[in-house]
Sequence to fold (1916 residues):
Amino acid sequence: MSLALRERLIFEYSRPGRGARGQWPEAPARSALDALPDGLRRQRRPLLPEVSELDALRHYTRLSQLNFSIDTHFYPLGSCTMKYNPRACNAAALMPEFLGRHPLAPVAQGQGFLACMYELQEMLKAVTGMRGVALSPLAGAHGEFAGVAMIRAYHRARDDLERDEIIVPQAAHGTNPATATMCGCVAREVAVGADGDADLEALRAAVGPKTAGIMLTNPSTLGVFERRIEEVARIVHQAGGLLYYDGANLNAILGKVRPGDMGFDVIHMNLHKTFSTPHGGGGPGAGAVGVSARLLPFLPLPIVAREPAAERGAEAPQYRWLGERDLPQSIGRLTSFGGNAGVLLRAYVYMRMLGREGMRRVAEYATLNANYLSARLQQVGFEAAYPQRRASHEFIITLKRAEQDYGVTAMDVAKRLLDLGFHAPTTYFPMLISECLLIEPTETESKQTLDAFVNAMAQILREAREDPEQLHGAPHTLPVRRLDDVRAARELNLVYREPAT
Amino acid sequence: MSLALRERLIFEYSRPGRGARGQWPEAPARSALDALPDGLRRQRRPLLPEVSELDALRHYTRLSQLNFSIDTHFYPLGSCTMKYNPRACNAAALMPEFLGRHPLAPVAQGQGFLACMYELQEMLKAVTGMRGVALSPLAGAHGEFAGVAMIRAYHRARDDLERDEIIVPQAAHGTNPATATMCGCVAREVAVGADGDADLEALRAAVGPKTAGIMLTNPSTLGVFERRIEEVARIVHQAGGLLYYDGANLNAILGKVRPGDMGFDVIHMNLHKTFSTPHGGGGPGAGAVGVSARLLPFLPLPIVAREPAAERGAEAPQYRWLGERDLPQSIGRLTSFGGNAGVLLRAYVYMRMLGREGMRRVAEYATLNANYLSARLQQVGFEAAYPQRRASHEFIITLKRAEQDYGVTAMDVAKRLLDLGFHAPTTYFPMLISECLLIEPTETESKQTLDAFVNAMAQILREAREDPEQLHGAPHTLPVRRLDDVRAARELNLVYREPAT
Amino acid sequence: MPFIPHTDDDEREMLAAIGAPSIEALFDEIPPALRVQSLDELPTGLSEFEVLQLMAARARADGRPLCFLGAGAYEHHIPAAVWSTITRGEFYSAYTPYQAEASQGTLQSIYEYQSMMASLTGMQVSNASLYDGATAVAEGCLMAVRANRRSKSARILLPRSLHPHYRAVALTMALNQGLIFDTVPYARDCGHLDLDALTAHDGQDFTALVIQQPNFFGVIEEVDALTDWAHAREALVIAVVNPISLALLKPPGEWGAKGADIVVGEGQPLGCPLSSGGPYFGFMTTRMQHVRQMPGRIVGATVDVDGRPGFSLTLQAREQHIRRAKATSNICTNQGLLMMAGTLYLALMGAEGLERVAAASMARTAELVAALTVLPGVRRMFARPTFHEAVLALDRPVAPVLAALAQRGIQGGLDLADFYPELGPALLLCATETKNGADIAAYASALTEALRPARAA
Amino acid sequence: MPFIPHTDDDEREMLAAIGAPSIEALFDEIPPALRVQSLDELPTGLSEFEVLQLMAARARADGRPLCFLGAGAYEHHIPAAVWSTITRGEFYSAYTPYQAEASQGTLQSIYEYQSMMASLTGMQVSNASLYDGATAVAEGCLMAVRANRRSKSARILLPRSLHPHYRAVALTMALNQGLIFDTVPYARDCGHLDLDALTAHDGQDFTALVIQQPNFFGVIEEVDALTDWAHAREALVIAVVNPISLALLKPPGEWGAKGADIVVGEGQPLGCPLSSGGPYFGFMTTRMQHVRQMPGRIVGATVDVDGRPGFSLTLQAREQHIRRAKATSNICTNQGLLMMAGTLYLALMGAEGLERVAAASMARTAELVAALTVLPGVRRMFARPTFHEAVLALDRPVAPVLAALAQRGIQGGLDLADFYPELGPALLLCATETKNGADIAAYASALTEALRPARAA
Ligand SMILES: Cc1ncc(COP(=O)(O)O)c(C=O)c1O
Ligand SMILES: Cc1ncc(COP(=O)(O)O)c(C=O)c1O
Fold:
């Protein structure tokens, strides 16, 4: 599609009386609606598009082409683990029997599905070193909620009622403090040391009788491994708090080191990152949680249990959902049904394809790619935030100097990258590094792609010196140039309105 | 994807040792190949890409975005009936049981599939008014071959051995004369009258004892209905020839008038046009043939027969393939197996969705759209080739005047349309109209889309007057501008070669 | 290494550029004691072919029974164009549209979705989806507490006839923030929320009343009176609605004199397959005055530096990545792709198509109820009008009856014994437009069979 | 009107613009007597939901038996990425790439396909597909007659061990042009094409020799000697090959001293599902010197007016739309989308993956043959090495045995009785990489069962 042409709104294709009639069922006899009380009926039709099937399909196909995506672009978005989403996972999840299965269907008509869920729980336990896993949380932040709620339930069960502080490092992802609040806690930020590791003094000062727990990810969002993690665990545990592992960065350590072994009590996993389910332009995800022994009783509902064949005197094992009766201390239910089953199936397929051997290779090549990219970018003149450290699966470039010397910001670089055919890295996160780009190449990108990215970055640095306007004005070749966000927020235009006629 | 960036060749992503290993089976023991005679083994590996799954998928996804298609653009390609390809048809054809069925599977394990094929034959008979239908030809031209071969077989069976001339009107599609040659006949062109109808005098002069038959499409490729078709049929039949109907234009008359009723003896249908199976960037198609009673014995193999339940003393009717024993006079087999089954299934689903009521509406709205577009284009200053005639489902605009006045050709207009977001109409066909555009909007496009096309054409006419260079240089916004076809043919570069290292 | 493209040469060159002797060396900052020794609990890797064979066998084992279950997840026809479009890589494999210029496809789609949902619910603004119906109810309650400055109690009235899972999730998600939930009973004979039952709360400070329309039993509530009652007491109204039903039923924006304040619900009926419970999407709409209290992403229309129209995320100061501990919610990843499914579904159905789906579903359920209640021992539980679900009272425990139906390939509905023991043997069932006369007859005859042996015994 | 977007207003305005009173009036040039009176033979229209239910029921009826059939169509694993990519609308719903600037995606893909096929077959040029394997053989014969100016006879030597359907199609498609086909017998004991059998043609003027490798029986031919024999007699060699086998077998371009002249075959094994016989694609490659005699489309690399590289259809003067009656063939629409499937398949497999598929298929068939030939009454028919198909000789008629296997969910192979009655009871079977040890054991045990009753009787 020629980018010069704007794609209209679906409503602009609409004409009264038009419609994708092949999709509509027969209208039942009018009398079928007699039972509806008059006063409760809808009087005016909603403003929905009236378009042909072709117009709808063409419209959304054209819109799709305006997006960058993994399938079309290198997408080194730090903290987001934008790796290849294998098509096999999608094919399996879209099998008609899986799609057609009702969430409340009897377990007898779901042994195939439940077997996958049970095995997924077991595999996640194995890779995290935790003792129990629940699959129902619907995204990372939802898993965080489950985790912190379990921490609270744990303290409450011990009558330790004052503990309502959650410690989060400055560099933490926004969902961490927000989750603390959602759980009725106070988020308490602690400083990070100059080397990227925790500032143990600050931590010791922060913990105390009000400490419910600490939320960490390791490697941290600074892209480095917290070397004194065992010490951190000791400090927090000694103060009576629990350790929460934000699994967004699990890709970095898969099969290499396990949160359970580092001393964490609870973890959420972003299956839509580490286990490569697609991000769908914003979701869905799946934020399975894993726990150590002491939190087992508090896991959210439901969970899949396996009753071995022998126990039941049956031929095959039987899988079933555990509910309140099985887990009376559970924090309870977090979802309408059992979780994002379709996402879980995709993650299950992905893990089965990786298998034991593939698991650690994920971490190895994700780390190799990040360190290579970091080394090469430094060679061509960029400044790493932590040059003395190993990169994990991601690393930070800071444009402080470019900003000072040429007035070129991280945002300028990001937008210019779009012109050059690369999705931008994460910008301005973590907040404590100024003018930063958080870059996560993932293990599924080839050296050639990384080299092309380095070339683009080198070109941008040249442009920063020679033609900074080029950068301030970027992007130049996309469907739109930089958007007026201030106007968007000030003159709120959030829904289409029919033009007055 | 930014159009400024060229997509490399898949080979340029290749690196020795890379590969989509998840797709590969385990390598069997080396000894498994011991049976292969040494001298017959391959010594050097073929030059196939060695790429990751992501690189392959990304490459072809990016390439896809360089195409225009129905799903993204209005595509008024005359003679090609580029209408909406309903997704339901694809969904049905891709059901795993249909995909997995082997062509030589026993008919007992194919009653579902064969029932669809039988009913498709019957529906095609009903809409064409023919007495028998065979589904195996794989495209229109292949159906033409079957048709002319049947005509030859018919004459041969009557010992009428001299008849080896096939009459084709000047305006005929290239496949018509080419088919005549394929069948060992001589193609004899006859002139068309000034009003677009056949020149009956010329026809009378052309027919004779060597006439095997005539190939026509009605409405003709000039976009008008041959009004004296009954007279044409009489002339040819009286001369001992048979009438062949090129069904490429069946969309124009579906449910309105039937080739069988017009006096045709044989017809091929382009299911990939009239019955909306996708064109796939060049194919596949399906060129089912229908015949009148006298050609029934000669139909190509195989054909699906239905044995009613009663006859077999069974519960359900039984479907089976007819072969040589059933049809000893058949022209024989045209395909490896039974035809483009997946295409036939799509056409079947489409026809079932249209049903009796939908069939004639196809012709009605295809015709309405063509006449509307023709009228509007004439209003804005274009010249119709046959302004005094009703358009059928398509019509011809001639740019003779624009060429004379501004030096702007049909090709210029076509290329400029691409810039404006429309696929070009068919250009320079039929050959007897100079500087022509053959425009077929199809019934699935809305008035708003047609109006937008008229606006684009009006803009082009303005540009022709004011800025013809704009047109000669078009397209300006596509991945490439006009290509050097002379160089392509002179310095043949037909395959990738590894750069010398 | 199914998805890793590195060749031996690549690896060597990359290590050289880094200046590391081996990949292993890149992990040298990790304390050796912590390193994983073995992953033997994990199975070995499968090829794509092997895993797809395994999954096909598992899927086959679950079969495709005839499903008359509803209870919050509904089997509707999903146009083939919906999933073939949204699984296009550009939608499927994109991230959240933070880089607006590279995400206009997703952003414009969200804007269109917001427009459709706002109009469908009769409200002014919509977010870009929440996790699911249950969490949308919970977020609605939390939002009401923020939005209703007049109330100090953080007390929410939850009907007992609200989906039991939604009640449970509201408790899990809001108790830690100190919300108080009071349960409002339903009328035992008619299944609806009786105004009389609310009088117990007259004079009390409460923040919001939740109204599910139709309620969990499929019963249609007197939403006007309920809304006016709550508004008269300065409480907000949180409407929980089935989006398909809104083709026929008065939209929450028109409930009572002033309309509901917050509208939430389960988006699944709009183009999302049943899929064992997810992914679905929760929706939320509200009035403009409350927009800054709304959780979740919102897209706004704006212009670029050249004045060209475009779309971007807006009001991000409500969100965790900007406001952190002070955000309206911790939600980050939402259910974007399912929201896309809903958008395509609504675009293809339009108002008239949606009306037909709603009416046909209602008619089918009425036919089903009529066909089953002629059987002895089977009667309708509640006297009030229902939409496309109904509760039947049986003369014996429901579980064995459902088991007998399952034997015949029929999922006959939901046994309410666990959720509403006070009802006695009660069966919640549903027939959407996907069920035809033959399906209903099959159910009736299977139920006849299922009831017979017990009768004989 | 499922796919027609016209509203009543549209229709009225359009007719006004045309100046016609009604749509009916637009058909006023058609003689009234010819107008269709009724279409009652056609069923009434179905909604998408109804038609998909119908199709699902029909598909279910056909089931998914375990398939050991080959005989020209082979069940291989198809990576999920293949069809999800080629059914993207931009490939799926585009026309033939006549407008090069708007079709670079398809054109570049074809160029890549040509490159892969040329290399796989060891030739210099490839076209962009023909209809299927059988028509490719027929077109190959017609092309040979055009290309071999030394021969006047238009006589082609066709082995009897060539796929019987290919022989039949060659006859149908070439007889009208006066080609003569001589059948060459195979060696009864070994199933191969014996040089001795060819001596009958020594001294004769013939245009080309067709060699299928492996032949219909799966037997590997002595292609070097055969090729040299034909070339020594100034005839061309038309190779008919299974593309998967070329991962292991010498490519036709290297047969004998000079290599085959024209290579054709069935592309189905490369990413195309069995699908009851189509759509598949035929491939054809040749030497540069014959390119102008080749039928079908060809894409060339070139540059645009700005010097940017691009692709376009080339050598179109061979084709019907330019050359009409003098074209090399009447082919127009080909099997483009399937060629795309082949391209993606080859890109994902690469040389090593293809080698593995070939080797695993060969190994599996060997295992299957070994497992079956231990049964009494079952033996190998031919002594020569085979690729991934083999003929078994049974001690009783094959048809009832196959029927008994079908009862057990196994498609056991092809009964050769109709095609090669001279062989006696003969069964052609195949196991590709998609069959594992359990599948082979299942076949062996079913065959044991199937053979038992007759033995007892
Ligand atoms: C470090 C970190 N933690 C938590 C999250 C939240 O995960 P989700 O977006 O799935 O809610 C993210 C992802 O954005 C993340 O990067
Ligand atoms: C009038 C006409 N006849 C015949 C054909 C040949 O059909 P096919 O391309 O399916 O071989 C076409 C299509 O290109 C056509 O337009």
